Structures are given as structure tokens and as C-alpha cells.
Amino acid sequence: MYELDAAATHAINNLAGASTAIDFLMVWVSAMGVPLLVLAVAGQWWRRTGRPQTRHVLVAAGLSFLLGLALNQLILLFAHRMRPYDSGVTHLLVAPSNDPSFPSDHATATFAIAAAFLLHGMRRPGLWFLAAAVLVTASRVYIGTHYASDVLGGALTGIVAAFLVRAVYWEGTRADRLITSIL
């Protein structure tokens, strides 16, 4: 299984270096993707149409984001995977990281947001967030910081977090009405 993962990771990372413009774009997406998605979510708080439901989904997306990253911290208690550039699988386009490779926090965060929107019925923005999540996660392998399975594991953690939030945070409850009425 490792050989397949390393081969897929190497194939994606091997595209790096062919185009300076694409390399720059992928480094930028990797660095700015998560903050821009968070801003895109937060900026919808003042949206005029469908305000209560939109705000409920925004809170659910934020909770999914946080829960996904918390789940990653639990996983890191048991998994200490070396980065692919330390194993000689990839060449790195950015500064090295001291954190373990599995799971990818970027993948977790972006897929948690996309899954929250999709699970709560906001299909159009959910699909846009999903496209952004795929781009951010692909950039992490492209620039050499993660194995392909790291981003798949992170995506799965984000999706699981969104499902858990969907199961316990219901629209229209007293807590939901209180949170969504702020500002």
C-alpha cells in the first residue's frame, strides 16, 4: 500500500518545476487557501437572503472545522508519519514543517467546510467550497508537503466532523437561535 501511495504522491509532485507560474500558484493556494475559505464563510454572516438557515450552516461549518482539527490532534497521538520529502519521495517547494504528515490539517479544514455546506443543503456554495478543497489538498501534494493518503485521511476527518456536527447541532434549537441572532 505504501508503494502505491508513494507512487501517486511522487507522480503529483513530479509535476512541480515544469512551470514557474503553476508552482507559484500552487504555493499560494497552499498558503492562502484555508484563510480565504474561512473569510468566505465568515463573510456570509451578513448575507440578506435566507439569513437564519445560512447562519446555521455557517456555525455548523465553523464547528465542523474546529472538530475536524481536534480529531486530527487525537489521531496524532497514535500516528507519527514522516513527511514525504524526508523520505525522499518528493521535492519541497516551501519551507519544511516539523509536524507529522498524517493527517493533513489543510484537507481536514477545507473538506469540513465543504461537507458542512453540502450536508445542510446549501448545494451551490457547497460545491464551490468542495472545488476549493480539492484544489487546496492537491496543492499540498504538489508542493511536496504531504502524501496523497495524508490529504485523503484529512478529507475523511473533515467529512466525519461535518457529519458529527450535523447529528448534534440542529437548526431552530434554542442554542441555534441564540447563536445565529448575534449581530
UniProtKB/TrEMBL annotation:
PANTHER family: AT30094P (PTHR14969:SF13), SPHINGOSINE-1-PHOSPHATE PHOSPHOHYDROLASE (PTHR14969). The keyword Transmembrane applies. This is Phosphoesterase. Keywords: Membrane, Transmembrane, Transmembrane helix. SUPFAM superfamilies: Acid phosphatase/Vanadium-dependent haloperoxidase (SSF48317). Residues 56-166 form the Phosphatidic acid phosphatase type 2/haloperoxidase domain. InterPro entries: PAP2/HPO, PAP2/HPO_sf. The chain crosses the membrane at residues 25-46, 58-80, 126-145, 151-169.
